[in-house]
């Protein structure tokens, strides 16, 4: 698979589920990844996968290693680096003034129509925010900022039919991660 991006959900947030980035890089090496690098403390790992594993297989392996090491479950979304670049190039709001006001919510599988419909249903006429979709990504633009959004929290709670949720990254972080590929 070559270069991969691993997005971990819900670590190092509010002092909960602490995973030191140095230890995450060590776990990546133990899982057979090479040249692991992390970006900020929120669970963004970039590495090479010489074994070329399927993203879902690698996600399970890394989630299992984290559970064994730290004693809690951490869902992971794994993307080939080329796919993340493609997703970023397809961002519906690339020219926003503040890239922290655009978020990609990444899911471990393509978004089914029922999830897309639930997201669109939150976009009532009085909501300033907007959503768009790209296969496994729900894009969210919050012109007044994430903290002012009435729909950001319900959107991040949307689940795939099997109960899995997505993990969000803002456009600024996604650009930084992609620059490290």
From TrEMBL:
SUPFAM superfamilies attached to this UniProt entry: SP0830-like (SSF160379)
UniProt xrefs under Gene3D superfamilies: SP0830-like domains
Coiled-coil parts of chain: none
Protein name: DUF1697 domain-containing protein
